[in-house]
Design a protein that fits this description.
The complex is a heterotetramer, with two copies of chain A (165 residues) and two copies of chain C (86 residues). Chain A is built from four helices and ten strands. With 165 residues, chain A is α+β, with helices and mostly antiparallel strands. The chains are: A alpha+beta (165), C alpha+beta (86).
Amino acid sequence: MDRSGVESAAVSVQQADFDVGAEIDRLGAGRRDVGAIASFVGLVRDVNDGSGVHAMTLEHYPGMTERALEEIVDQAKARWALFGVRVIHRYGRLEPTDRIVFVGVASSHRGDAFAACEFIMDYLKTRAPFWKREETPEGARWVDARETDDSAAARWDEGVADGQG
Amino acid sequence: MDRSGVESAAVSVQQADFDVGAEIDRLGAGRRDVGAIASFVGLVRDVNDGSGVHAMTLEHYPGMTERALEEIVDQAKARWALFGVRVIHRYGRLEPTDRIVFVGVASSHRGDAFAACEFIMDYLKTRAPFWKREETPEGARWVDARETDDSAAARWDEGVADGQG
Amino acid sequence: MTTTVKVLYFASLREAVGRSAEEFALPAGVGTVGALRAHLAERGEGWQALGAGRNVRAALNQRMVGAEAAVAAGDEVAFFPPVTGG
Amino acid sequence: MTTTVKVLYFASLREAVGRSAEEFALPAGVGTVGALRAHLAERGEGWQALGAGRNVRAALNQRMVGAEAAVAAGDEVAFFPPVTGG
């Protein structure tokens, strides 16, 4: 489904930080018909649900994580006309202002790029096996999943029903 | 409306290229409660409406351009909870793969960041006074506005009517 | 005291009318952007690009406006095709 | 030939049951992910975190599945709370 011929890994799960500018450049590199690159960067915040957050540790399910992210990318590629997709998700201990996740999508037109980028983030939030444990002044706690994340992902299912099925 | 206290120029209209990674980093810098940065980069494509494009020249309306972009940014800030917004639009002669436009938005949560970023692009496409003249094998031609751009911008008006009016 | 408006033309419209800017003395009875446009469209060769059937947008003092916007001496009025940036 | 399933536990569920992985011999009559979960929930202290009222998700061979998914010897089954990455 990648039309570039040269396929680099779409998905990385890693402890290391990443270079946002370089990732965005790579999404446009080597082709002259990319008109739009939409991207998203998620960062650790120093507050969540009213408590201060000193740090967090991201646990994940090695093996399944990569597979889940690749399936989400494949779904996005099946649904929109995309040239390239890149997903990077970190795990381990992170502090406020640290980058957690990057999603970048290259397409001919901005509508597809925006939709696919947001779709991937929404699906990632409900289907990729990561769990956050926050360190707060009241002690460590596992972050609860948000209902708004389920509803954000669900609206894309409705979109499928409305579309070609 | 900018809560950072330190306000840098939100809007730049320039001939020079820009550094996407540095712009995204700046959107998150200096605060520890930014959780989401959505961004968009528009690039010159080597094809448009079936013709090859060697280059294009972007004309604009100095003075009004900056004002129009600032108004679009202000509307986005009034509508969503945003920490920072950055819009850069180039003018002059550009070639395929050159960057044309950057929009970046920082917020606590991804929903606001994505919505504001796409809103700004949609409004920019219909309200910022830029005009593209393409060089093709068949000669130079002014690019026609797309009806899809009008409808993309109009869906946000409906959103206002549905909301607080 | 000025009795003129500054009129600007952009893109294909600038090429059609053969100029990018002019100072224009507002004729009696021309009080809106739409009336100014209709008046200019009567100038002859090239100016029909401002005619009623054409897709022309207008700005008054650097803000997009409709045909009904009131125009007065000292204003800056711009005519141009639909924008295509981004 | 193996007669066990590999069972993995993550995040708060891992802490509640006091282990991250085990090889578990499938009892007679336990043929689905839901039945396996109910069986494990009966183990006592800590294991009620897998109980019927709790918000537990499951994966079979590294794919998210519902309680009805058929499980057989050699499979990898994981139980965990709703995910919170991104």
